[in-house]
Amino acid sequence: MHRKYKIIAATALLASLSFGAYAQSAAERAIQYRQGVMRAQGWHLGNMAAQVRGDKPYNKDDFARSATFLSQLLQMPWDGYGPGTEAGAPTKAKADIWLDTGKFKSAGDDAGKAAAALAQAAASGNMDQIKVAFGATAKTCKTCHDDFKSK
Ligand code: HEC
What we know:
Bound molecules: heme C
CATH topology: Four Helix Bundle (Hemerythrin (Met), subunit A)
Helix content: over 70%
CATH architecture: Up-down Bundle
Order of helices and strands: HHHHHH
Radius of gyration: 20 Å
Strand content: under 5%
Distance between the termini: 51 Å
Largest sheet: none
CATH class: Mainly Alpha
Number of domains: 1
Number of helices: 6
């Protein structure tokens, strides 16, 4: 392709991409954002669960990487729960998130702390410590889901 046409094609592609983003409502983007972060959390929790259960051979570096990622991911979803994001796309977020935001935030803090402790345990490579910290972290996911996520 001639260079000039390549540039025109690239510009058209960029324009259509950014139009696509604007055509989506802000609420829809926020909902998809928080769900995407949650899915990534599920990925890394699952990778660690498989190693804790022995379904996958334990690898210290791989496990520690997932623990670090999870601890960072747990700081991210809350941007996606701003005012007006109760609806606008399919969501399992319960209205209580916006009615009892303090409780929701504190459930998020508990999860963040548990995952930070898990990342520390993972760096030690001590499986007894890891198992305890992993169980505590998984429990914080469940606690928040029981209260704030519909089935
Ligand atoms: C403070 C509350 C809270 C914590 C802590 C939390 N979640 Fe969630 N999670 C939610 C809510 C609310 C939803 C529903 C979001 C929606 O549908 O808009 C959700 C949805 C999900 C989903 C489904 C995403 C999708 O739409 O496909 C997965 C997977 C998930 N969480 C994994 C986890 C894991 C793993 C952890 C723990 C490491 C965790 N969550 C911790 C509140 C929480």
